[in-house]
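help with this record:
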Amino acid sequence: MGKFLHDFKEFALKGNVVDMAVGVIVGGAFGKIVSSLVNDILMPVFSIVTGGDGYKNLKYVITEARPATADGAAAVEEVAVNYGLFIQNVVDFVIIALSIFVALRVMMKFMKKEKKAEEPAPAPEPSAEEKLLAEIRDELRKRG
């Protein structure tokens, strides 16, 4: 049991796991921001443009709702295909995917610039004098 706990501790405290946990938390918060953007800003504008009262209310009703009656018939809930919510979720997904794509592109550009800055400059070509001295050195090693 002690080895198991030790191995789990090593796994949990690795940088990758902690980074992933932070990413999930930030991603969840980012998802809420994008959902609010879609629900509270974009969809109302789209519904004005299309002349409707919002995509949330778009649906195809299969069975109408009926209240309970006095003679004992039970209430029946509405059965509907809520395609408006589906449209809203698709728009939500596209905006999230686009935002992540743009963020990753920006990060990759910064990483490339940083990597180029870290790379050492290539060593200069040795001069003719340095080449001659290296040949003399090698020849002396062979003899001695």
DSSP finds four helices and two strands in the chain.
